[in-house]
Model the fold of this input.
Amino acid sequence: MHDVVVIGGGAAGLSAALVLGRARRSVLVVDAGEPRNQPAAHMHGFLSRDGMPPGELLAVGRAEVAGYGGEIRSGRAVSARRNGTGFVVELADGNEVSARRLVVTTGLRDELPPIEGLRERWGRDVAACPYCHGWEVRDQPIGVLGTDPRGAHLALLIRQWSADVTYFGSQLAEQDRAKLLARGVRIVDEDVVKVLADNDELIGVELTDGSCVKRSALFVPTVFSANDTLLTQLGAEHTEDGRTTVPGVYAAGNVVDPMAQVIIAAAQGAKVGMNVNSDLVLDEAAPERRVHGL
Ligand SMILES: Cc1cc2nc3c(=O)[nH]c(=O)nc-3n(C[C@H](O)[C@H](O)[C@H](O)COP(=O)(O)OP(=O)(O)OC[C@H]3O[C@@H](n4cnc5c(N)ncnc54)[C@H](O)[C@@H]3O)c2cc1C
Done:
């Protein structure tokens, strides 16, 4: 039995594992290897790592965890259950792993609106986060898809990076219209039906009325779909500092905080690592003590 099993080896999970390994805890990280920012060539806004390919950050992180004895296993967890004061996690290959504490750092999936050609450009010239991609497309002709009400705010933000921003959407609220106009955002009251690319580059969008508008980058408000099956199975709801309503179960990063960028997810993971170790220390300091609530 490990002290801790971490499900999800992105920035949050590896950061938790690093802190726990350095605290001389036996840690197993199980990772399905599909981090959210995988489609992007570069990661931005992480102090001292700005511009690093996302996969490189994780490769360095894995090596650091392994350097302190942490074990990293490729695989997917499909279920988790309590076993006495610990937890058993079942993997997709049929194996089971057990640990005294469980850290869930499984991230989220960005659901894109069903617009032809959009998915193919995702993470390249179609993005959601201006702080991740805004600088790279500064001063370019940018489109923002009003596929849900958050699109208006996204367009206001994007205007910070370019004077040539067009909002596309047929469902714009009047108060949002006024704000966009005040900020100099052009409004097109048609929905985008197709994303146009040529020579592996975005060139524009096709609208419901059949017209086309040239754009070289698009921003879209995605729907966040948390990879929270394990938490749901255990009835664990996130409370604060990575703790959940189920004693012994912790969570960090995008699975519980969709707005967390890489540096924030990593920080949350580090905090969880310290809280888990503290929890284990208290457990060991009082042998009669069991996980609160059992
Ligand atoms: C296109 C794009 C570009 C981005 N660019 C930036 C950027 O430039 N800068 C920035 O700060 N942020 C960026 N982000 C946000 C960034 O992706 C997240 O902040 C970060 O990935 C969150 O880390 P995490 O550890 O919570 O989740 P993730 O990095 O998504 O890691 C979760 C891991 O858990 C694994 N997993 C999921 N379910 C299971 C399971 N059941 N069993 C085992 N493993 C599982 C996944 O495969 C994955 O490896 C970008 C996001 C996108 C979509």
The chain is about 30% helix and 30% strand. Residues 241 and 275 are 8 Å apart (CA to CA). Residues 7-13, 30-37, 39-40, 43-46, 76-77, 105-107, 110, 123, 127, 129, 132, 227, 253-254, 260-263, 265 surround flavin-adenine dinucleotide (CB under 6 Å). The helical segments are 11-22, 54-67, 118-121, 130-133, 150-158, 174-182, 229-234, 262-285.
